[in-house]
Design a protein that fits this description.
The chain is an alpha/beta fold. It has a single domain (about 1-240), classed as Class I glutamine amidotransferase (GATase) domain (Rossmann fold), CATH 3.40.50. The chain is built from seven helices and twelve strands. The chain has helices spanning about 20-30, 60-65, 70-85, 95-100, 195-200, 200-215, 230-240; strands spanning about 1-10, 35-40, 55, 90-95, 105, 110-115, 120-135, 145-160, 165-170, 180, 185, 190. A six-stranded mixed beta sheet has the order 2-1-3-4-12-11. Strands 5, 6, 7, 8, 9 and 10 form a six-stranded mixed beta sheet that branches. It is globular and about 50 Å long. Bound molecules: glutamine (GLN). Glutamine binds next to helix 2 and strand 8. Glutamine binds near residues 61, 94, 95, 152 and 154.
Length: about 240
């Protein structure tokens, strides 16, 4: 059994340890005897998207998001849209999450027309939403409590057909207004959660892996791992943030 993972734009979208998510996915599969192949797909490189099971996109500043626009619109956007509609799994963090939406209007007035894979948009504000934060995923998105770190000025608003990933317990989430955090559309999971999210939240990590595995191998099983240390760290932060 092997899972093919594509790390999109590792050259420009990687903030606050986002690449740790790739390491985490690989290790959690390896510990269950499942192979992984990881393909890095930076600006300017092409690949056959149909071969991948799981896509990861990290976060980036406004500048990096503008830098990759021409690459997106010269082919990758179409490939990503097709993969999304084919129900491939995507985990997209912050700048990568915004990129999956319709557009991002930065607080300095630049409009980045993104790919519109998800019916959502982002508007820059002069408030920076920054800090450790915590949210609870909706039941259909694992139901688990997630802790992490957010740092964005963009406020994201979800349109019809896209549902939140979860509800904010502490922090800002999508926009600091409606208590929603992240987005789910088909098998795309978007979130503001850096940290990186997966090593800090093993339950959510396994949920992502299970979603990706069962698409290709319907009877695949993920036996439990010893997550004692991760759970202790999670509980510590959860107690701190709940105050
Ligand atoms: N540039 C975006 C914002 O500030 C995303 C930042 C990020 O990926 N951390 O809203």
């Amino acid at each position: 059994m092997k899972l093919n993972i594509c790390h999109l734009y590792p050259d420009v979208l990687n903030l606050y340890g986002d690449t740790g998510n790739i390491i985490c996915l690989k290790k959690r599969l390896e510990w269950r005897g499942i192979d992984t192949e990881i393909t890095l797909l930076p600006i300017g490189e092409k690949a056959d998207f149909t071969q991948f099971d799981l896509f990861f996109i990290g976060g980036g500043q406004d500048f990096e998001q503008e830098v990759l626009l021409s690459d997106l619109h010269s082919g990758k956007a179409k490939e990503i849209l097709a993969a999304v509609e084919d129900e491939k799994v995507f985990l997209c963090i912050c700048g990568g999450y915004q990129m999956m939406g319709q557009y991002y209007l930065t607080h300095t007035g630049e409009q980045c027309d993104f790919i519109g894979a998800l019916n959502l948009y982002t508007v820059g504000s002069d408030v920076r939403m920054i800090g450790n934060y915590m949210f609870e995923c909706l039941d259909e998105n694992s139901g688990s409590e997630v802790i992490g770190f957010e740092n964005h000025s963009g406020k994201t608003y979800l349109g019809e057909g896209v549902f939140p990933l979860g509800t904010v317990i502490s922090g800002f989430g999508n926009n600091g207004e409606d208590h929603t955090e992240g987005a789910r559309y088909k098998n795309v999971f978007g979130t503001y959660c850096h940290g990186p999210i997966l090593p800090k939240n093993p339950e959510f990590a396994d949920f992502i892996l299970k979603t990706a595995l069962s698409r290709r191998f319907p009877s695949a099983d993920l036996p439990p791992l010893n997550d004692c240390l991760e759970i202790q760290a999670h509980r510590y932060m959860s107690a701190r943030l709940a105050i």
